[in-house]
Prior knowledge:
Layout lengths: L6 H14 L4 H5 L5 H8 L7 H11 L3 H6 L3 H19 L3 H18 L2 H18 L2 H14 L5 H17 L3 H17 L5 H18 L2 H14 L6 H17 L3 H18 L2 H17 L3 H17 L3 H17 L3 H12 L8 H17 L3 H18 L2 H17 L3 H16 L16
Keywords: DNA-binding
GO molecular function: DNA binding; DNA-binding transcription factor activity
Protein name: Transcriptional regulator
Amino acid sequence: MGERDDPGTIGRRVQRLRVERGLTQRQLAEPVYTPAYISTLESGRVRPSDDALRHLADRLGVAFDELASGHSARLVTELRLRLTEAQRTLAVGETEAAAGQYAGLLAEAERHGLAAERSAALLGLGECALETGELVAGRQYFERAEEALAGAPLPARVPALRGRAVAHYLAGELRYAVYLLETALDELNRGGLHDPDALLLLYASAIGPYMDMGAHARAAQAAEFALALAPQSGDPALVARMHRSVARTLVAEGRLAEADASLAKAAELYRGLQIRTELANCHWMRGYVYAQDGQLERAEAELREALGMLSAKRAALYSSQVAVELADVLHRRGRSDEAAALLHDVLGHLSPERGAVHSAAAHRLLGIIAEDARRTEEAEEHYVRALSLLERAGAAGDLADLCRLLGDLLRRAGRVEAALDAYRTGLGHRTAPGTTTLGPAPAQPPL
């Protein structure tokens, strides 16, 4: 059964409907109940059983759910169908249209006091905000969705919590994103709430922040758990997202063929589901895999495909991130001027609060391009800006390499003490890569 109102509200509703239909308490009660029971019920002094509500609903000519909660089953069904349609609109990349649909649904759910539908609409608005790069607004929508489900079990709140963590991650707040995800994982596993979809969503979402923090062991373990949970999930879109995330750990381990196979599975699922933005992300990741394997022409083709799909649908933040990857491939193909122009354009759309890790990657690559052209001061400026962004984000995975680049640049310029400082900073990040500062790992699922 759905949510039920308190006895006082139900009593007033029964009385209103009885009076509207011109029935006495005796006529409403007989032959099963007494007029005294109806009087007690209407005054809110007794909580009616399901059997009593079914009897009253039949006598009053209304549905059980409508009498119990004030919401007709038809209304709830209609709203859920419209939520599914909004989800489909977002999946094909029509973000602005989807946001409009979700906003309308939110207003209706709030008007009728439907907590679950209100939360679903807020989740949709949060996902739309992530697509367009409005991270603060997205985080606020996810927070409101969590509040709407405050009394629900943790598995029901996981999508909103995961959305909030992703918003913090994209804003460069890696450590806090991991804290949110690991806290939820620990509570689920220690509490015996082994919901496969909830666990799969959290493990897949943790892989990106783990990798950026240099916590490769935790990323690999999260990928292992995600792969083990996938057969238990009933959500093909979630399984596809998992394959895309797991591919990143496979690339880090040099298992490029397996990474490509994992991405092929994800892409096949997304095509079947017609989820355009996620399919674009598969092209993006495959471009990255090909770039790591030295297949630069194929990498450029995949990244351009991803960029075209994302830009056409105004996925501003994600398209900026793909552009950084594409610029790296262009530079490696000897087209540094084209790469630099692309990076300067990208930096106009990124900031320390919006895509910090990719903003740092853009400055790093601009530094390399400037260094190749013997523009030492310009290269140093870009390296220092990248270093500041990565330190703020806690992205230890890239900090050590960046310190090495900066140290080499300073050493060649004859600034030995400054170079040694850069090397020492890099060694510090290399010896304490995320895993040593994250605290104990969360409890594990019973696989």
